[in-house]
Specification:
alpha/beta, Immunoglobulin-like, Rossmann fold, 9 helices, 23 strands
Length: 502
């Protein structure tokens, strides 16, 4: 018999739903809401034990459940409280979170945003997709002033109809994993074009760091100053129109209107984390793939600190300090300075359990969204296969700068990840420059000698520094024998164009 008030139905987050994929061989968490102190029983069709819990005083509850090894069996989960919910077509496999800005959001076919013009030959690519064991949960663009409890969305199987608006990088990554592992692959897609890393980082984490607090302060000051700046501009504009009418022959100009701080997404610290990461952080995942940095290029020196901080904060919230985090180095483009690529390379060097995908051979000087996302997905997958799934002998990285030595008017540069030898594709090595104490760089001759490159220039008899592919749109041709390109680098630490910019 019911009490004075109706009993509340148990409710699940949108992520825990039909067609979902759960991380295999793990202790997973499922959670939801119900009446305060309501008893909830969970049964998984693979499990012999049916765990029971009670909702807390606010109606929240969570249950831990062990999952066996992946297979291709369809399971059910039954949640029983005041009501019963059955979640069907549940599979066990590998689950990855795929996040970032527009190059991660970029869809297989033409998407709703103008830049989403589809991968190469997208109609043919999409038409051949038919794999119900690859499933995507796409989180819509969502902001949160505080951490949200739930998302909107549903799990979709990879087929020609559903896949059109899948993240291209995420899909190709999942396809490569499935091809090698032959287990169900779950992809949680959470990305938003044009967004900055600070929007994906918890605000309290930024405020707790003495070097990153300024990001929040600067944003708050811009929000506070915007109404007065707009009012001043409108007064100047009215005067400008009057002056122009009185003296048409005068050369009069007007500054641009003030930019409204984007409190809805790209500029706003923490809000995308709150809306698009925090709600799924209880869900057990294997790791993260990430494609972002373009919107932070103007503050690349700061990104050296910001990006590793983001990684640490996500690992903390997903309760996995060793969670794999593989990311894409920004491709060549007119707007992308070499310092953002350096910041990403340095992040790989200092942040454990990370991997970097170099894409200097996949750039477009006028299109910041290269359409060959298959290459990106494949290169990301090699990191996971070699580091997380036991595939030995896979070359997962191109050559990475290790050290340099000056001797007799030349500089010898050594590399990591050069096993099998260094390779110059299509002729002599390109994109090497060299400088002396005057810090003026000149084009250099570069010759391969084993796993070392010897760099010289007649114009620099006493060299002290070398740079490689150090410009917005480089066209380098240095690879290793596995066909993976070398990352841009510099051997000096001279002040760059973004140092001090906040």
């Amino acid at each position: 018999m019911m009490s004075g008030r109706a009993m509340a139905d148990i409710r699940l987050p949108a992520l825990i739903a039909d067609n979902m994929i759960l991380q295999q061989k793990s202790e997973i968490m499922v959670w939801g809401w119900a009446d305060p102190r309501e008893k909830i029983r969970l049964s998984g069709s693979w499990a012999k034990i049916e765990p029971i819990t009670r909702a807390d005083e606010k109606g929240s509850w969570k249950i831990l459940l062990a999952t066996p090894a992946a297979n291709k069996i369809s399971y059910t989960l039954k949640f029983k409280g005041n009501n019963t919910i059955v979640v069907r077509n549940v599979m066990l496999g590998e689950v990855w979170l795929c996040s970032g800005q527009s190059n991660m959001e970029f869809t297989l076919a033409k998407g709703p945003s103008g830049y989403q013009n589809g991968v190469n030959d997208f109609e043919a690519e999409v038409a051949k997709i038919n794999n119900p064991l690859i499933r995507v949960y796409a989180i819509p663009r969502t902001i949160g002033d505080s951490a949200l409890a739930d998302t909107k969305g549903n799990w979709k199987e990879a087929n020609a109809q559903n896949a059109r608006l899948f993240s291209a990088v995420a899909y190709y990554y999942g396809r490569e994993l499935f091809g090698k592992l032959n287990v169900p692959i779950g992809l949680i897609s959470s990305s938003w074009g044009g967004t900055k890393a600070e929007a994906w980082t918890p605000k309290d984490v930024l405020l707790a760091d003495s070097d990153l607090q300024i990001i929040v302060r600067n944003f708050d000051e811009r929000v506070k100053a915007y109404p007065q700046n707009l009012k001043r501009y409108e007064a100047d504009f009215a005067k400008w129109k009057l002056d122009t009418a009185i003296a048409k022959k005068k050369s009069l100009s007007l500054s641009r209107p003030p930019t409204r701080p984007n409190i809805a997404n790209a500029d706003s610290p923490g809000k995308l984390y709150n809306g698009m990461i925090a709600p799924v952080s209880p869900y057990k995942i294997k790791g993260v793939i990430w494609y972002q940095g373009e919107s932070n290029a103007g503050r690349a020196y700061q990104y050296r600190k910001l990006f590793p901080t983001l990684i640490r904060s996500w690992r903390s919230d997903f309760h996995n300090p060793k969670m794999p985090f593989y990311f894409v180095q920004i491709s060549p483009h007119n707007s992308q300075n070499p310092e953002i690529r350096e910041a990403q390379l340095l992040t790989y060097r200092i942040a454990p359990y990370t991997g970097i995908v170099v894409t200097t051979d996949n750039g477009d000087s006028v299109n910041i969204h290269p359409r060959n996302k298959e290459l990106v997905g494949k290169r990301l997958s090699i990191w996971a296969l070699s580091h997380d799934y036991g595939y030995k002998g896979l070359a997962y990285s191109g050559p990475l700068y290790k050290s340099m030595q000056v001797e007799k008017g030349m500089i010898s540069v050594k590399f990591d990840e050069a096993d099998g030898g260094l390779v110059a594709k299509d002729g002599d090595l390109k994109e090497f420059t060299i400088a002396g104490d005057d810090q003026i760089f000149y084009p250099a001759q570069a010759k391969i000698k084993g796993n070392t490159i010897i760099v010289t220039s007649m114009q620099v008899p006493n060299p002290v520094a070398v740079r490689f592919a150090w410009r917005n749109v480089p066209c380098p041709n240095l690879y290793n024998s596995a066909g993976l390109p070398a990352s841009p680098f510099r051997t000096d630490n001279w002040k760059g164009i973004t140092e001090g910019k906040n």
